[in-house]
Design brief:
The protein has 266 residues and is α/β, with parallel strands linked by helices. The protein has helices at residues 13-22, 52-59, 78-99, 135-154, 175-178, 182-194, 217-221, 234-241, 250-253, and strands at residues 2-6, 26-30, 41-42, 65-68, 103-109, 157-163, 165-166, 179-180, 200-205. The protein contains nine helices and nine strands. It has a seven-stranded parallel β-sheet, sandwiched between helices. A two-stranded parallel ribbon has the order 7-8. The longest helix has 22 residues, at 78-99. Bound molecules: D-galactaro-1,5-lactone.
Length: 266
């Protein structure tokens, strides 16, 4: 399998590119900045440039899939984040349609649903409706909607990953539930690339965390088998920050945690 990965120099790309390569996937990385050494591909490719569509389409010849990780990973002014996250997603999907690439994995985010409260009991399904907590979250909701459109129009398979907290290790109480380990991140992207005919699947991207409340059933249905559990860090985190109140504290009770604040103007 050969895949193009946008945002190859970003925090997720730097892990996923070598991780997929180790699994036998031929990886072609792209990024607006230079690529890290060891990642093959094209640096300096700006997906907002006027020739981005043709440049990416050309790169996608003879490729089996695209993993779109490029974008800004947090809140920004609307024109900036719309261009970086929403416009580039449309370019990525249209390039795939033009090049005949039928499998796309999109790096969505939990922040597309950030104002969603924890259910009184049970798990929150991965198709929880959009309740974005930021302009960033709106661009991720848009990303998922664009994915759905291209599945309908072009019979593509698009998997949108509502990624939690992708870090080497969890550091805050919220991350006891939302952590996605680096190794599980690679497992998830690999499953999204290889699952037979998912259509448009929207799945949570977290590890097998004991304290998770986001339902991994749809991710597991793709073949994702997470191995890591943030619980390994629970004693350390709780000793430092105190016992979490999962239904009282907004940072723990709402999907988007610190992003889901009503007092933010942008
Ligand atoms: C995200 O989508 C962000 O890119 C990342 O910086 C974290 O804030 C993460 O979500 C999270 O929710 O922990």
């Amino acid at each position: 399998m050969k895949v193009v990965i946008t945002g190859a120099s970003g925090s997720i790309g730097k892990v996923v590119c070598p991780g997929l390569h180790e699994r036998g996937v031929e990886v072609v990385g792209t990024d607006v900045v230079d690529l890290p050494s060891g990642i093959a591909g094209v640096g300096g490719l700006d997906l907002n440039a006027p020739d981005a569509l043709s440049a990416l389409t050309e790169l996608l010849a003879d490729v089996d899939g695209l993993v779109h990780l490029a974008g800004i990973p947090g809140e920004e002014a609307w024109p900036t984040i719309r261009a970086a996250n929403a416009d580039t997603t449309q370019i990525a999907l249209q390039s795939c349609a033009d090049a005949g690439v039928n499998r796309v994995v999109l790096a969505s985010s939990n922040h597309a649903t950030g104002f969603t409260p924890r259910p009184a009991d049970g798990m929150l399904p991965s198709d929880a409706p959009h309740r974005p907590d930021s302009f960033y979250g709106v661009t991720k909701a848009t990303m998922e909607a664009l994915g759905a459109l291209y599945v309908e129009r072009h019979a593509m398979d698009v998997v949108s990953l509502r990624i939690g907290s992708f870090r080497p290790k969890p550091a805050r109480r919220r991350e006891l539930a939302t952590w996605l380990s680096e190794a599980d991140g690679v497992r998830l992207v690999y499953a999204a690339l290889t699952a037979p005919s998912p259509g448009h699947a929207v799945v949570w991207g977290i590890s097998d965390n004991t304290r998770a409340w986001w339902d991994l059933a749809t991710a597991r249905a793709l073949g994702y088998e997470p191995v890591d559990d943030a619980e390994a860090y629970a004693d350390e985190i709780i000793a430092e920050q105190g016992e979490p109140d999962w239904f009282g504290d907004d940072e723990l009770r709402l999907v988007g945690g610190p992003f889901a604040r009503r007092d933010r103007s942008r």
